[in-house]
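Narrative of activities, Objective 1.

The group set out to show that a structural description can be obtained from nothing but a protein's sequence at a throughput compatible with the screening campaign. Below is one input-output pair from the validation batch, recorded exactly as produced.
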Amino acid sequence: MEFTAKQIAGYVDGTLVGNADAHVSTFAKIEEAGKGALTFMANPAYEHYLYQTEASVVLVNKDFEPAQPVSATLIKVTDAREALGLLLQLYEKSQPRHEGQSSLAYVAPTAKIGKNVFLAPFSAVGDGAEIGDGAQLHPHATVGAHAKVGKDTIMYPNSVVYHDCVVGSGCILHAGCVIGADGFGFAPTAEGYEKIPQIGNVVIEDNVEIGANTCIDRATMGSTVVKKGVKLDNLVQIAHNCVVGENTVMSAQVGVAGSTKIGQWCIMAGQVGVAGHATIADRTIGGAKAGIAGSIVKEGNTVLGIPAIDARRFARSQAVFRNLPQMSQDVEALKRELAQLKEQLNKKQ
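Output recorded for this entry:
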């Protein structure tokens, strides 16, 4: 599909500078964009690309003033990144929908399938399961017995929703993610480890996105809950009986141990680990690789390090850590001087 600069400016409530009839049919990074592409420039570090780009239209922040002539049409907006996001959503919605139910899909006789559901070849829906209107199951996506998948939810290839689990509306489950595998529950015995049955489920609320190969374990009893608006990256692990609060985001390789409650609007950067049975306050930020060993009660706190501490304390500690080699040499020198002084005092006595 093609759009003119004028149409785009109207959609994002922007101000045109240049050719209003410039046409775009694709998106590209500013350093790679060619004719017919739309791109954006929000970071001043990329400004030099603006004077070289062959893009037809560039989104910029409204307070930006070019230092050199620009061949592309500019659209000035309040926030160039946000405007680009709106346009990408528009582009996504304009793409053809997957439709129809393949004869190679398996649907149990007792399953309930809503209207306009897409079932790709080799997708599977178990006994008593319910699939909401407009949902999409791509090849090898599997919904277990008595599980529920809400309307307009997309399950990409090899994603799995185990038996009795619930996924809300407008969710995206990327390839290979697993919802409702058994929690890691074992009791030590003299002969080894005895499995503790995991008889609960997982409840995923609306508008949650779950990355590729991410796993959310079913509860031992009750539910593991991921609340609405949560966004999980690839390779995230949420253990049994956890609760993840609304609009919390987690980057790749975050691991949350069992029975932990994470508040709303939290941010967990890559490889953060959270110990079990902890309670994490709303709007907590865990910096990359932070090891959160217990509860955090203060809202809006940023933590770093292993074990995780307040980010400002961590920064001061790191400054000391960098100086440890010199400090060690200084201490050894002081010890030698002290020994010499003691020796001299003993001689005088």
